[in-house]
Structure formats: C-alpha cells, structure tokens
User: Fold this.
Amino acid sequence: MSDAVKLIAFAGSTRKESYNRRVVEIAAEGARAAGAEVQVLNLKDFDIPFYDPDLEAVEGMPPGVKKLRDLFVESDGYLIAAPEYNGSMPGLLKNALDWVSRPAPGETQTTLRAFRGKVAGIMSASPGPWGGVRGLAHLRQILSGIFVLVVAEQLAVPNAADAFEPHGALKNAAYHAMLEAIGKRVAHLAKAMKEN
Assistant:
C-alpha cells in the first residue's frame, strides 16, 4: 500500500473551455509539487442522474455514481473548483455531492467514508467581478457539514475571460501562486491526517 497522498481534483463545470477546470489544474500542479498523486476528473465522465430517493430505493446507487463515490473513498482529499450560478454553486456539483454523500451499508451521515477525515481545497473563477466567492461560501458550508476539513485558503478569480495566458497559466502571478499554494496546503494537511 502506497503512503503517497491521493487527491482527486475536479470542476463543477463540464464546459469544454471551463475556467474552473483551468484553475483546479493549477492547484493540482501545486499538490503534485508537494508529493501528492492527483487525478483530475471530469464530472461529465460519470453518468450522474438527478438525485431521486425513489430511484435509489428501487435501483440502489447508479453505477456512474458508485464509480465516483469509490474515487472519493479511495482519496485523502479533494481540490474543487466551483463556478458560481446565481450566487451559489452549480446544480451539477451539488447533485454529485448529494449522491456521493448517500450512506453505504453500515454508514451513517456522520461516518461517511467518502468524506469524514478528508481535506478539501476550494476555488473558483468567474467572468464577473467577484470571481465566484458567493458560491464558495455555500460549498464550504456543505463540505464542512459532511465532516470535510476545508482549508482556510481559497481563491476566487474574477474577470476570468481575460485572466489566462494562452498556455493556461494565470496572467496574475500572485493568483497563480495562490492556487498552487492551496494545492500544496491540501496535500500537506492530508498527509498529516493520514499519519495520525
């Protein structure tokens, strides 16, 4: 069994040219520099229906959701970039978290293996002047409520349509460094928690 910290990184947007995909990839670089193994996911690759308790009662957890949940369980933490839709996080991301937080047999809402004892770093990018900061507040509240330790550092990149160089780096070097620092912070905390 590897002692390396394993993280998953993903954006709450599946748009091909997603700004949030770009920022989470920068944070993933920082986590890798700190020694973590990082798998960058696209939620589009998982068949995630709208959460429906009747569907769950009849068919159980859908295969795509189970695949995603297994990745959460196997990881030590997450890097999540969340676009802001109408002042909150997008429905796609909320729906994925709702499904993954369903208790497996033998679990309760306070012992979820996909979340309890894990570390998360959150970030956002938005074409607007606030960068998605309002949505991050909701994401932080939800993750904390399912016993994820969300690092204090976060970044909301404003005016995202003009924020990136053609090769993907942020034009603002301080923002770029902050995203990398969030990745490193998550990797270091996840390692410390894994060792205790």
In short: The radius of gyration is 16 Å. DSSP finds six helices and five strands in the chain. The chain has one domain: 6-195. Residues 173-195 form the longest helix (23 residues).
